[in-house]
Design a protein that fits this description.
mainly alpha
Length: 278
């Protein structure tokens, strides 16, 4: 590969990273703004203004109940970002310590127990897990966070364990063992700091999957409940009006697509940044 090809490849990867970061920051910014302001009350009904096309007063139009679609999208972004982010945090704060513990020498029974527990959780997809949780505690955003978060735990545990096993063979870990440091101390002082970039990449991937999972749960009625707006429920409500008002499905679907695209570009860019150049 020539130097020019290498530079062009690096430039394209950097461009993807910048674009992904910009898209992600824009959606997170909208979610933050929606905490304090939206053009209209997203739950306010106005039947006389129902199914309006995009106009100067309602930039994205109104739905079948006269609610402002832009305001609902902004409030839905707040809900989607919150659910996906909290589910990733659950996965990180539980899965990462489990992965570090599983990789600690001499491993053995502890490693086997943690990995088999991960396999058990992987046997229950997040949607099925949400159905089970909702059957016991009822549907809602909190239960969606718990269901997606539980599914994230084994993902982060496996990624952490795999990265930690490679780092345990490095000279600085061997030197720390010779110096008398215990495996837990080495894990948090020497292993974990060197896994931050790997975990950041995995975090963006799980964030994007969390966005899709939250929308899917809301679509089937297991996510945020009315009157809290949700992109998934907006799609569900729009399907019966697809011929009359296709924009009702277009806007939330496009928002979800663009957000996931931005997160994937961000994750891909971060992954290339941490890989050594060829």
């Amino acid at each position: 590969m020539s130097v020019a090809d290498t530079r062009n490849g690096a430039a394209s990867r950097n461009a993807g990273l910048v674009i992904g970061a910009a898209i992600t920051a824009a959606f997170v910014g909208v979610a933050v703004i929606a905490q304090i302001w939206t053009p209209y009350d997203p739950a306010a009904l106005s039947i006389v203004h129902k199914l309006q096309s995009p106009n100067l007063h309602h930039w994205f139009g109104t739905d079948q109940l006269g609610r402002d679609v832009l305001s609902m999208l902004m409030a839905g972004a707040k809900n989607t970002v919150g659910v996906a982010l909290l589910s990733v945090i659950i996965g990180v704060f539980i899965g990462v310590p489990l992965g570090l513990l599983a990789a600690c020498p001499p491993r053995g029974a502890v490693d086997e127990l943690i990995m088999r527990g991960n396999d058990l959780v992987f046997g229950f997809p997040s949607l099925l897990l949400a159905i089970l949780i909702s059957a016991v505690f009822g549907p809602g955003a909190v239960n969606a966070i718990i269901a997606i978060g539980i599914f994230n735990i084994p993902v982060f545990a496996r990624v952490t364990r795999g990265g930690a096993l490679q780092l345990w063979t490095r000279d600085y870990c061997l030197a720390a063992q010779v110096a008398g440091k215990g495996p837990i101390r080495i894990s948090f002082e020497h292993i974990l700091p060197n896994l931050v970039s790997l975990l950041a990449v995995q975090g963006t991937i799980q964030f994007s999957l969390g966005v899709i999972a939250e929308a899917g749960l809301s679509y089937v009625g297991l996510g945020a409940q009315p009157p809290t707006p949700s992109w998934g429920r907006m799609l569900n409500e729009a399907q019966t009006l697809a011929a009359l008002a296709p924009s009702l499905a277009l806007f939330p679907g496009s928002a979800m697509l663009l957000f996931v695209l931005g997160l994937n570009l961000l994750g891909e860019g971060l992954r290339h940044r941490r890989e050594p150049p060829e």
